[in-house]
Design goal:
By secondary structure, the chain is α+β, with helices and mostly antiparallel strands. The chain contains four helices and nine strands. A hairpin with a 2-residue loop joins β1 (16-20) and β2 (23-28). The longest helix has 11 residues, at 159-169. The protein is globular, with a radius of gyration of 19 Å.
Length: 178
């Protein structure tokens, strides 16, 4: 007997909900859920249902998601050229091993200094952030800088830092005085 179930609705017309910390989010199409799975935002153990009040099942048991949850390169990254990405992390919980396993699954990793790595990958900064954040706990934080694509992503730095990053990252250059 297989542990994969067929969705009650067809994947092209059905809507799906995701449960995070007891709260239902949605509706999403199966294509959106597959994208979330490829990005690491939906894990095999994430609860999903084909209605907001439906029967919740683990994502690994849904036929249309089982392939996306198996890992590997996300389908939408298959034709993306490789990038150089820096990751800096402060991990104060016991999540170091899980974090490193997730980081090493992203591509070739070079240890530069304590808490600082260079990763050669096809994944975007957002995909890396989403995958790594699944491994961490309260108090842990990190930043991902895609040096090739000029992108930045971070986790758990706080709302005031979010604002400061936005002002500098997308802000005007300082005028040089001669």
């Amino acid at each position: 007997m297989s542990d994969v179930i067929a969705p009650a609705k067809t994947s092209s017309t059905g809507t799906w909900w995701v449960q995070v910390r007891g709260k239902a989010y949605g509706p999403y199409t199966m294509a959106q859920l597959s994208g979330f799975a490829a990005e690491g935002r939906i894990r095999p153990s994430t609860s999903v249902a084909d209605s907001k009040d439906g029967a919740w099942v683990e994502a690994r048991r849904v036929f249309g998601l089982s392939t996306a949850l198996r890992g590997g390169e996300p389908a939408n990254d298959a034709n993306v050229e490789a990038a150089n990405v820096f990751v800096h992390a402060e991990i104060v919980s016991g999540s170091w091993n899980a974090f490193m396993a997730a980081l090493e699954s992203m591509g070739f990793v070079c240890d530069l200094a304590p808490g600082l790595w260079l990763v050669r990958t096809r994944h975007s900064a957002g995909v890396i952030r989403n995958a790594l954040s699944q491994t961490l706990e309260r108090g842990d934080r990190f930043v991902v800088v895609d040096a090739t694509r000029d992108r930045l992503a971070w986790f758990n730095l706080g709302p005031e830092v979010d604002v400061r990053i936005g002002k500098v990252w997308s802000g005007p250059l300082r005028v040089e005085k001669h």
